[in-house]
Amino acid sequence: MRPASNGAASAIGIRLRQLRKNRKLSLARVAKAAGISVGFLSALERSHMSASVSTLRKLARFYKTNILDFYDPTESNSRLVSPEQRKVLEAGPGVRMELLAWGNTVMEPHLFRVAPRAGSGESTLTRAKSFCTCCGGELHMELEEEKYRLKPGDSFYFESATPHS
């Protein structure tokens, strides 16, 4: 948990609050379901803090949606997304997530930029399939108890329902 610093965190906070209010849920109910504190959820909704990808996935799972839906749902989707148009989420210390497409998409494509020795934190799982390609450096993946080391050019495909980090 860390202070929010960009417009994406503000958009996410607003959307999280809307989702909770529309469902007439308390902060305590949502926080308990996501495994986070009420204070942290409140800070997220007020855009005072940003969340890790893992926390956003827990919230998305609770709301039966995906991370992309935390952004402005009225914003139009373009088939072509240039780098300067990407929605960016600073997803934790040294972890930057760029959304490569949004709107009515079948996939949830992200570009993660992970600083040396940074990571996703706790293990995550989703109902999707995941595909990773290491573009530079080394990427250490853990899938259940197995550890993998990806080097530039290596690809990795797995069921996201399997705990991973």
Description:
The protein has 165 residues and is an alpha+beta fold. It has two domains: 2-70, 434 Repressor (Amino-terminal Domain), CATH 1.10.260.40; 83-159, Jelly Rolls (Sandwich). Helices cover 25% and strands 24% of the residues. It is built from four helices and nine strands. The protein has helices at residues 7-22, 27-34, 38-45, 53-62, and strands spanning 2-3, 49-50, 87-92, 95-99, 110-114, 129-133, 139-143, 146-150, 155-159. The chain has a three-stranded antiparallel sheet with strand order 3-4-5, with no helix packed on it. Strands 1-2 form a two-stranded antiparallel ribbon. Strands 6-9 form a two-stranded antiparallel sheet. Strand 3 (87-92) and strand 4 (95-99) form a beta hairpin. The longest helix has 16 residues, at 7-22. The relative contact order is 0.13. The model is unreliable at 1-5 (pLDDT under 50).
Estimate the mean pLDDT confidence: 80
Name the CATH architecture of the largest domain.
Sandwich
Task: Report the CATH topology name of the largest domain.
Answer: Jelly Rolls
* Strand tally: 9
What would CATH call the class of the largest domain?
A: Mainly Beta
Largest sheet: 3 strands, antiparallel
Strand order of the largest sheet: 3-4-5
**Helix-and-strand structural type:** alpha+beta
Q: DSSP strand (E) fraction?
A: 15-25%
